[in-house]
Design a protein that fits this description.
3-stranded antiparallel beta sheet; 3-stranded mixed beta sheet; alpha+beta
Length: 148
């Protein structure tokens, strides 16, 4: 089997000390970054904590959508995710990500519900961002399946 590498490049600038701001550019993403207000920063633009949560959430929902499609289950997905960061003695640790996924099935059957629930948990195990975080950040999935 051939191995294919995908290279993503990011450029960043930073305009000063801890409470300054920076810019990042990576593909279609271009944004201002700073330390969040919750961590005594200026809270301008986004921050690494939000970006990590965004990466984990989008990877998870795309993985789940793909698995549902391959299983021929038509669904709409709604995801709310939370990132938990702990602070102790000025050391910040990303402890936990919680994904609260709701799967709205077009065809409501016991079989589709069972498969959708199983895939909701399997998607987290197969998502490449979850794999990169495994062993460092706890990831929890709470799943609800409903009929559209």
């Amino acid at each position: 089997m051939d191995v294919v590498e995908h290279v993503f490049k990011l450029e960043s600038t930073w305009d000063g000390g801890r409470n300054a701001t920076g810019e990042i550019k990576c593909g279609q993403l271009k944004t201002t970054v700073s330390i969040p207000q919750e961590m005594n920063g200026p809270g301008i633009g986004t921050n690494p904590d939000e970006m990590l949560l965004g990466a984990a959430a989008t990877c998870y929902i795309i993985s789940l959508a793909t698995m549902l499609e391959y299983s021929k289950i038509n669904a709409r997905l709604s995801l709310q995710s939370e990132g938990i960061v702990q602070t102790s003695k000025n050391v910040y640790t990303y402890k936990k990500i919680i994904h609260n996924i709701t799967i709205f099935l077009q065809e409501d059957s016991e079989k589709n519900t069972r498969i959708a629930e199983k895939l909701a948990y399997k998607a987290e195990q197969s998502c490449m961002i979850s794999k990169a975080l495994r062993g460092n950040v706890e990831i929890i999935v709470n799943c609800s399946v409903k009929k559209i």
